[in-house]
Amino acid sequence: MAFLTINLRNNDRLTSWKIEGAMEKSKVLVVGGSGYIGRRVVKASLAEGHETYVLQRPEIGLDIDKLQMLLSFKKQGAHLVEASFSDHRSLVDAVKLADVVICAMSGVHFRSHNLLLQLKLVDAIKDAGNVKRFLPSEFGTDPARMKNAMEPGRVSFDEKMTVRKAIEDANIPFTYISANCFAGYFAGNLSQMGTLLPPKDKVLIYGDGNVKVVYMDEDDIATYTIKTIDDPRTLNKTVYLRSPENILTQRELIDMWEKLIQRKLNKSFLSKQELLSSMEGLDYASQVGVGHYYHIFYEGCLTNFEIGDEGVEGSELYPEVTYTRMNEYLKLYL
Ligand code: NDP
Ligand code: GO6
Fold first, then answer.
1. Ligand 2 proximity of 318 Cβ (cutoff 6 Å)
2. Catalytic residue at 43?
3. Is the pTM of this model over 0.70?
């Protein structure tokens, strides 16, 4: 964000105003805009008043839901830009329309995972030369901290690091969003795998259930994401979304749910070894999931470090955002 600072001295008292938005808001291109997090990024960008471009890929073919979603963005004021990952020129032309590119490329194994396709986008951004900020598809665990992650789940982190390296080698200004646990995948189900709904009577607790994780509403993730794009404080930094009241243990989350339903669930406890041996015989996508759960709920990889000089925290930067608390979020599931 551009600030105009005015200082006035009056009887030895210095008053200073910071006037926000003295410069025009940046133009945003969202790639992957019809996806799960991408659609929320488009909405947040429009809501913040950015001129918003959304990539429209010819490959969507007869996917009418995708097309209808793109058309609904257009109705809300977004511009649709036709371009394909198999046509470099078209990507360059798309990127030239914007100051900021946000990519929400797929990276969930049981849906689809094409994170490395982003290398083509990085090439286009390099050739276009106009982009002031690129936000690649991250939105989760900080991959830079996962150098010792387990197979096969580590592939997500390795691929995100490969994309980071390409960005940094090309000297493209960036912001990485470490969004922690999407509430739709981790909170609504009380962090149970293989379901998106809260269990009715039996809940599985990882270890002692006392490891701190961070649950974030997806709309809030998108709001914070858009806040960072014109902010000099987030230039070439990782923004960790650690909204303080959403830093919870699995037990604390379950307690919230039990208060809402006014009864207790039966609890069983899963040891580290039991979780790891459950991986055997599972399909690839589930093995990836189990690995991620291990790092999050046993190692505490989302919270077992202090944010250093390379990072900043979202709710500290933008205290004006009223983020969704998990006891509110869970009411949807009643
Ligand atoms: P989706 O599975 O919803 O896919 C997003 C978009 O990827 C699609 O809409 C599509 O764009 C694009 N895409 C897919 N395949 C191709 C292709 N072959 N060529 C071009 N574009 C393609 O993604 P998610 O929203 O689930 O994931 C986005 C990010 O969020 C990932 O980095 C993932 O790791 C992270 N994530 C984090 C979670 C957490 O709890 N922290 C949970 C889930 C995801 P289009 O709109 O053009 O069709
Ligand atoms: C989400 C999941 C949920 C897996 C991240 C298997 C990247 C990240 C928090 O999409 O594998 O049931 O950080 O049965 O950096 C998936 C992945 C979690 C959900 C993790 C993710 C989180 C990706 C499942 C399941 C609900």
1. no
2. no
3. yes
